[in-house]
Amino acid sequence: MALKNYASQGAAVSFGTSALTGKITSIGSVEQSRDALEITDLSISAGGSKRFIPADIYDPGTFDVEFLYSAAQALPDIAAVAETVTITWPKATTSGSAATFAGTGFIASRGTAEAAPGELMKMTVSVQWDGETAPAYSAGS
Amino acid sequence: MTEISIKEHPSTIAQRKQFSMCVPPITDRPLAAADQMAIYIEDDLIGFASKAEGGCINLIVNFEEADAAQIRAEVSQQMGITHDKLSMIPDVSDDEMGDGDEDSE
User: Fold this and answer.
1) Cβ-Cβ contacts under 8 Å, B56 against chain A
2) What's the structural domain count of chain A?
3) Considering only alpha carbons, which residue of chain A is nearest residue B28?
4) Which chain B positions have a beta carbon within 8 Å of A14's beta carbon?
5) Which of B14, B31, B52 is closest, CB to CB, to A133?
6) Which long-range contacts (CB under 8 A, 24 or more apart) does A7-13 make?
7) Domain for residue A126, yes or no?
8) What chain B residue is nearest to A94 in terms of C-alpha separation?
9) Is there a domain that residue A7 lies in?
10) Which of A71, B21, B27, B84 has its CB surrounded by the most CB atoms within 10 Å?
11) Closest chain B CA to residue A135
């Protein structure tokens, strides 16, 4: 029986055209949201619940990536145009396939490494999905 | 080196399937990652390649530099275009990065 893999090792992010790469130490979650529009009216009885409907559109969200930094590391291009960004999560079984989450986005912020005694240097990147091609998820196995 | 295959990006396939199930089917919305192809060795996803001439190959799993060069050559041959940039996780020499970095030695 195949084991399910819940471990993070093997997860990766690729930037379609800018070729940003490095040793990734964390990939943040993609936080997507849509507004809840309250439509509560005066006909609702006391003790009843407020009413909400979902907004027609949603925020495609952002996510953060953290890289180890050394002098050989290229910095993220803060002026780059939007590109296809793909998050790949490791496959669940040895014979399975990886899951991907991809869409177009751009580097919305970057942080150079902090240097402190006894600590690793890391740089940070924040990616904003641009919504032009809303990120799509492909389940693996 | 084992056989390399090039397929549509998995997210593009998933989105096309999702749109086709809508009533009526959505045909005019851009597909995620339509500008990218996925690179497989056997059934293992190893990276992505731009459809654009001079675009980028992103290898997302560990490779020796020598293997990366072969992958680069085969991907370009199968896609019929050249790729100027190669990004590879985790270790890569400056010249393999393809960003015009010069060796300091």
Assistant:
1) 15-19
2) 1
3) A133
4) 47-48, 58, 60, 87
5) B31
6) A7/A90, A8/A90, A9/A90, A10/A89, A10/A90, A10/A91, A10/A98, A10/B61, A11/A87, A11/A88, A11/A89, A11/A90, A12/A87, A12/A88, A12/B60, A12/B61, A12/B89, A13/A65, A13/A85, A13/A86, A13/A87, A13/A88
7) yes
8) B44
9) no
10) B84
11) B32
Q: Count of CB atoms within 10 A of residue B86's CB?
A: 25
Chain A residues close to B30, C-beta within 8 Å: 132-133
Query: How far away is chain A from the Cα of B71, in angstroms, using its nearest Cα?
Result: 16
Reading chain B (105 residues) residue by residue, the pLDDT tens digits are 578 999 999 999 999 998 999 999 988 888 989 999 999 998 899 999 999 999 999 999 887 777 888 898 999 999 999 999 988 875 544 454 444 444 433
Domain that holds residue A58: 12-138
**Which positions in chain A touch B45 (Cβ < 8 Å)?**
88, 97-98, 100
pTM over 0.90: no
Q: Which ipTM did the prediction report? A: 0.84
Chain B 3-22, CB below 8 Å of chain A: which residues? 9-15, 18
Hey, is the C-beta of B81 within 8 angstroms of any chain A C-beta?
no
Parse chain B into domains and list their residue ranges. Answer: 4-97
Single-letter residue type at A14: S
Residue A34 lies in a domain: yes
Q: How far apart are CA A95 and CA B60, in angstroms?
A: 18
